[in-house]
Amino acid sequence: MMNLHMLSSENKEQYIWRLGQAKDLGEIDMTWEELANIINNEIEDKPTSESAYRKSYACAKRFYEAGVFDKKEKTVKELQMSFNEEVTINKDNSYSSSKLIQMNEEESRNPDFVLKAHGFDIGCWKIVSARNTIRQVISKQDGIVTLYASYITVKPIVDLTLNQIENFYKELISKYPSPVIKKSKKISDGYLLEIPVQDVHFGKLGFSENDSETYNYVLAKERFSYVIDDVIENVSGMNIEKIIFPVGSDFFHIDTYESTTTAGTKQNSDLSPQLIFKYGLECLIENILKLSTIAPVELFCVNGNHDFLTSYHAICSLNCYFINNENVTVDTSISPRKYVEFGKCLIGFSHGDKEKKRIEGLMQIEAREAWGRTKYHEFHLGHLHSEQTKEVNGIIIRNLSSFTGTDMWHHNSGYVGAVKKCECFIWDKECGLKNILITTFG
After folding, report:
1. What is each CA distance from 145 to 81, 89, 91, in whole angstroms?
2. Does 109 lie in the same domain as 25?
3. What angle do CA 121, 123, 127 make, to 5 degrees?
């Protein structure tokens, strides 16, 4: 007669299966109720009824048929790692995600739970479609664990209400209260520090077979802050008279609620448009505050082709935030090109996507008087994500590098291999460009 006691090598589910299998095969002549009583006597657990035992046996039988009780049984983590998890960006800018998730039946019907399990912020994404199927039910040290193969398609929540906008700024003010800061003692014989961080593309989702090309808003913020910290360390001890800090030039990756550029080109982004603006603005505030402790900071907008409107919204928001900080001056003028005169130096700024060869003759016309007073002339541009320098018509024209990652379009088009770095400049009133600070990224 077979052993009706629980073996030391068995767990609860294996024991239930062994007894039920013996009954199915006619090895024991007992009712389901009698088997339930044996289970109750052997296992100190909540009482098992006849119907509950039969359900448990049916479940355990599936374990056996799936091969879960053999020596090759896998842990939950191993099963999840072997599952083909992926995130796909669709043509309509929706995202499709597949994931093996540990959850119960009630949780599988909860959209918020499923969204979070797939890694999406419930305040920014909504489910378009979802399908959850039991992929594997396993039994090991922790008893019964239900896993679902979950497939969802989501889209960003793009409908903003006035309450949402109001709450956004309330949260921003609460998190970053604007301090009243008096102007530092004026320095009249120091250097000008220029920090033109180009083409950040905050919110871009970059991925390729090369892990070093992965890019998202977290990496964008880390790299941006690293540049500022590196510059601050390098100018320590120097006599900095003022800092100029252009805002824009594709700092933001998208410009519309449909996650497109200003011109309407679809982009791969890792956040909703609202969060890209929110987190990007917070990143700017944090780092401008750092710089304002060194010297007065002058901000102005340089519109990019990805963020023509969003960059201007950002400069207006910064103007409101720093209204009581006398160390920060904000220029909200709408000209796409800006000029800064410092001693014998005249520096022009533009994103560089529109003027083409005409850039060579614009400074002499648009800043005619400053051109006559100055000796050293440079135009600093972005857009190309790589360093290119030429001298023409008495102007040095620099296309500046970028630390942004490579997205699918650039990868497929072959725009790869540019050195990821940021160039910042130190200017002397009499001698022109004194030094270039370069922050590189592996």
Report:
1. 16, 31, 36
2. no
3. 75
